[in-house]
Structure formats: C-alpha cells, structure tokens
Amino acid sequence: MKRVFVLLIITTITFSCSSSDKNISDNKKESVESASAKTDISGKYTILKFKGESLKDKDFNGKMPLLMLNGGNMTYSTNIGCNQINGKYTLEDSAITFLPGMATMMACPDNLESEYIKALGEVDNYKVENFMLKVYQGDLLKIIFQPMKR
Fold it and tell me: 28 partner at 20 to 30 Å CA-CA among 13, 62, 87, 144?
C-alpha cells in the first residue's frame, strides 16, 4: 500500500512540474507575440509621397496634409488640405486597415482628397523604414508618411 501511495505522489509531482513549465513557456510566448502584435506607430505625420509623387505645401495653400494616429484608442484623423476625416484603424503585426470615418463636407476644387480617401481604404499592410511610415495595398506602395518634428 505504501508503494502505491509513494508512486501516486511521485506521479502527481512529476505532472505538476511539467505542467507549470509548459505554462511558463506559454506565458513567455504569449508576451512576445503580444508585444510584436502591438507595434505603436502613433504620432503625427505629413504626407510625403502619394501615388509616387512628392507633395509640397504650396500644392495645398501652404498647409501640408496630415495624418494623426492615436494608438491608445486606435483612431486616426487626417486631411489633405480641405476636409477633416476621423475614423478608426486596426493594426496587427504588419497589417493595417483604415476603417471609413466621418468627414466634413466642404467643396474642394482641384484637390487629391477623394483619391487619398480611396487609397486609405485600400491599404492593407505597412512598413516603417528610416522612420517613414509606408502603407501598401499588397505590394503596391500607396502613400509614404513622414513623421513631424516634435
């Protein structure tokens, strides 16, 4: 009877130890994955290139187009010289999606705004290279954002 009891205790201890090691390993893995999934690209950006063309402030009455990303509540605010657009975005690893948002409705003659809004809706991934935020639709580079000086 003592042997059965001792064997039961040894088996219980062995499984308990291996189970806790697995939990520790799983927790480490989860925290590493969570950290990579939560890349923070929050900040204020100017639009450096759109559709392969460099943009200049003179093209927008001296007011350069902006994109502001708030990673705390996953919202964005943007304009391209005329209307203000506010919405939410999702971010997971290298995937990014700009969800349709609310916009002011001013008339904007000779403005790239409708093309810009369409491009934002089409992007599905991003890269940060040399501090530049580059957004893509598949492999097609759509927009390059330059961080504003703080």
Answer: 13
Please identify which residue in the block is written with the tokens 């040894």.
10
Task: Give the whole-angstrom CA distance, residue 81 versus residue 18.
Answer: 61
User: The whole model's pTM is what?
Assistant: 0.70
* pLDDT (tens digit per residue) in 18-50: 444 444 444 433 333 333 345 789 999 998 898
Residues 79-105, buried b or exposed e (16+ Cβ, 10 A)?
bbbbbebebebebeeeebebeebebee
- In the chain, the percentage of residues whose pLDDT exceeds 90 is 46
DSSP alpha helix (H) spans, the chain? 2-37, 113-122
The runs of H, that is alpha helices, within 83-144 are 113-122
Cα–Cα nearest to 91, from 127, 49, 48: 127
CB 45 within 8 Å of CB 67: yes
The class level of CATH for 43-147 reads mainly beta
